[in-house]
Amino acid sequence: SSVFSAIEMAPRDPILGITEAFNADTNPAKINLGVGVYYDDNGKVPLLACVQKAEAILIEQAAPRTYLPIEGLATYDKAVQELVFGADSAVIQEKRAVTVQAIGGTGALKIGADFLQRFAPGAQVYISDPSWENHRALFESAGFKVNNYTYYDPSTAGVNFAGMLADLKAMPTGSVVLLHACCHNPTGADLNADQWGQIISVITANGLIPFLDMAYQGFGAGIAEDGAVVRRFADAGGPLLISNSFSKSFSLYGERVGALSVVASSAEEAARLLSQLKRVVRTNYSNPPVHGGKVVSTVLTTPELRQLWEDELAAMRVRIKEMRGALVAKLKEKAPSHDFEFVNKQVGMFSYSGLTKAQVDALRAESIYAVDTGRICVAALNSKNIDKVVDAIAKVL
Ligand code: PMP
User: Residues in domain Aminotransferase class I/classII large (predicted)?
Assistant: First the structure.
């Protein structure tokens, strides 16, 4: 027997498990609503035209693949800052924000978690109940105790705001609060502008450390509208961490493009933070990959491509909203005794549909796959599959 012989099987990832079951299903009409990916109306993951044009430029340049700096491509980091904070942001002008290119949003969260573990090792970490399932695992693996704060209210399919605020007020000073900047995954329930204001006040008054995870900028109300939350936190002063991802907004899932930004209280402090963030990156993977960062920075900094991206992202956002509307309208017809109007109020790619585990199992018998919690990916619905989905939901209700 070796050191490996007693190793136990790790638990399966619940969402990847759905994909495995889906792949094994031989029904040609099968539908996977369990994913976290945007599909177009033909059921395909799009390759955006802005990305193709940027790649054509990059191929033309035929640049050698040298190592990037530890913090990533400078043009990328700058473009990310302007996107996330707004180009005229005080934290950029005062050089109080530092940004490192990361391996997707996940990599950004991991760098942030490792960084916090070095400089706030005893802090409690709080994530929403429920949250993206990797949040807990990421912070636990960085050495933190991870707690939940009240978030979703199944009775309204919205946020239990009073409960959330009370939980925030009870957190010890110095706690890290992970917040979804927009398009909450998995529920689709977001805070409104007034509620955000109250959250910011409590966080500031109680000396909590906000960590905003923004994986869906542009899928809510718009690029600037969704980013407004980040700007409000930045205006309230540091400390603040933001992880952002281009997996969804550029449909660049496999290129692993994201960033971690940290707001400090002075330019001098920011320089020290950056030096430490670089140390975290250096000891994990040395420096980030070139291609995705170049594609995104080329698009963001080339006016025609930037416009094209904004239009393509708007089209994705609008199509998801249309699918929400169609789902609600069709369910009203097929299942008139059930009210699904809340689906129109939810934001982003997901909906907590209210379907129970038993109903999700029953849907699976119809070759329609959803998450056990009832989470469905609205971005996986299209004009060809929606009637089948509605008929099946009406049947299992
Ligand atoms: N945060 C949230 C809330 C997410 O939903 C996701 C992706 N599903 C991520 C972070 C990670 O993004 P990436 O795929 O870029 O690592």
Answer: 30-393
